[in-house]
Design brief:
Strands 3-5-4-9-10-11-8-12 form an eight-stranded mixed sheet. The protein has a four-stranded parallel sheet with strand order 6-2-1-7, with helices on one face. By secondary structure, the chain is α/β, with parallel strands linked by helices. The longest helix has 14 residues.
């Protein structure tokens, strides 16, 4: 691969790698190596992040509204030891549209004069850099050994679009015998997700709404459109991420 001496070489084009590239570019040239295979379009997902992380994104030139942020939240509903939810205070958090964040970060990286992007380079072909970061996540392409769980956790989620109040957007979390369910949202969308092991998904049957009602935590559905409960959420549209 052509190239000179880089101050920083980063493997991976996710939020961690791209954010680090923008910060490292303040100290010198940065080379970002994207995966050989282009990923399919990222499905819609809403993530809960601390306000301090949002402040970093603002420092990097991204406006909160551009990331889907519509409110700062200081409370959440949690039912971890019992079916009844408790209101729990927390440090300020915001809800971000994950695909929008990734797109904005990539735009910033592509526009930065000190950052060069290449795709599909092999590890042994990379030029030298004073700092080297493997931000490939679970792929961990530079690791000598990788330990994978026998029953990795998998998230499946449904997104409902509409107009939602601040209270409806609040983060809600409840434990289940096979994992946990949660809900969070923005002014325009709510996401309901269920996380459990891959083995549990293979034997799991029935609508998500029925599972929540059977476990006594149907309060996760409160305030959601009836059509969403019966269709998108009831059928558990298969938007899926591996989380373990």
């Amino acid at each position: 691969m052509a190239g000179g001496a880089w101050e920083t070489v980063i493997l991976g084009g996710g939020p961690v790698g791209l954010t680090t590239a923008l910060i490292a570019a303040r100290q010198g040239g940065v080379l970002v190596v994207l995966p050989r295979q282009a990923h399919a379009r990222t499905p819609l997902r809403i993530d809960c992040v601390p306000v301090s992380l949002l402040a970093l994104f603002i420092e990097l030139g991204m406006h909160p509204a551009d990331l889907g942020v519509t409110a700062v939240h200081h409370h959440r509903l949690v039912a971890w030891d019992s079916a009844a939810p408790q209101v729990v205070g927390s440090a300020g958090t915001v809800h971000i549209m994950r695909p929008i964040l990734e797109r904005r970060l990539l735009e910033q990286v592509r526009a930065h004069r000190a950052i060069t992007i290449v795709s599909g380079a092999r590890f042994e072909e990379l030029p030298a850099g004073r700092r080297f970061l493997d931000a490939t996540g679970r792929r961990a392409v530079t690791a000598e050994h990788r330990y994978l769980p026998a029953n990795p956790a998998v998230l499946r989620a449904s997104i409902v679009h509409g107009a939602f109040s601040r209270a409806q957007q609040a983060f809600r979390l409840a434990s289940l015998p096979t994992g946990y369910a949660y809900r969070l949202g923005t002014r325009d969308a709510l996401m309901l997700g269920l996380v459990q092991g891959r083995e549990q998904w293979q034997v799991s049957e029935g609508p998500l709404a029925e599972k929540l009602r059977a476990a006594g935590i149907d309060w996760l559905l409160a305030g959601m459109p009836r059509s969403a409960k019966e269709n998108s959420i009831g059928g558990l549209a298969s938007v899926q991420w591996s989380t373990g």
